[in-house]
Amino acid sequence: MALEVKICGLSEPATLEAAIAAGADLVGLVSFPKSPRHVAPEQAAALASIARGRARVGLLTVDASDDLLAELVAAAMPDVLQLHGSETPERVAALRRLFGREVWKAVPVGEADDLVAAEPYWAVADRVLFDAKPPAGAELPGGNGVAFDWRLLANLDPKRRFVLSGGLTPENVGEAVRVTHAPAVDVSSGVERAPGVKDPDLIVRFVREARSAGVPPREGPAS
Ligand SMILES: O=C(O)c1ccccc1NCC(=O)[C@H](O)[C@H](O)COP(=O)(O)O
């Protein structure tokens, strides 16, 4: 199974096209008004329609209500719902049933004990996305361009289908994949020239460096 690459926080058609042309497997749209990457439902719909059939679409929300999720799902028809708030395992399971889509749950990591928080999600989420804990006082629960110590993931059960994110860049993604054997990586800030402004050259470099890491990802069914 090949490494999957997701470029998150795309909010303009041109950079979405650049991500797809670079070979991204997934493109991510953020619905969170405090974010510089926030897109309204109609923008999400337009961006998703560009991507459809060319890359899978992820829709990122933070503790969104059923009504907002229903509006976003109807507009953008995403392949993946990425939950980046304090959604419980029960909420993850309920949303998976309600919307019949893949659900990824973000778990913030700062130290080894934080991996314990991921345990109940393996059974209910299609993927657990490990992201760095936001810095103190951060406005955003993710997308802060901060990395965590990847060695914390080195002994994960190889059957775990996780996504590595947080502070990845074209310069460090190869090392991150070598250390963690991640089956998938997700980036936002590391391919931007300013907050919320994606850089096509950085996107190309990121996808190339990720794919050339040459590390067999962990194998095994999603769990
Ligand atoms: O990107 C945002 O603005 C955002 C807002 C609220 C919650 C999560 C957000 N982003 C998450 C991501 O883009 C990625 O999943 C991940 O955190 C990597 O971000 P980065 O460290 O910027 O590469």
**How far is the first residue's CA from the last residue's CA?**
15 Å
* Largest beta-sheet details: 8 strands, parallel, barrel
Structural class: alpha/beta
**Spatial strand sequence of the major β-sheet:** 1-2-3-4-5-6-7-8
Q: List cofactors, ions and other ligands.
A: the ligand O=C(O)c1ccccc1NCC(=O)[C@H](O)[C@H](O)COP(=O)(O)O
In total, how many domains does the architecture comprise? Answer: 1
The ordered H/E elements are EHEHEHEHEHEEHEEEH
| Overall outline | globular
* Average pLDDT over all residues: 95
- Kindly provide the name of the CATH class: Alpha Beta
Helical run tally: 7
CATH architecture: Alpha-Beta Barrel
Count of strand segments: 10
| Helix content range | 25-40%
Overall radius of gyration: 16 Å
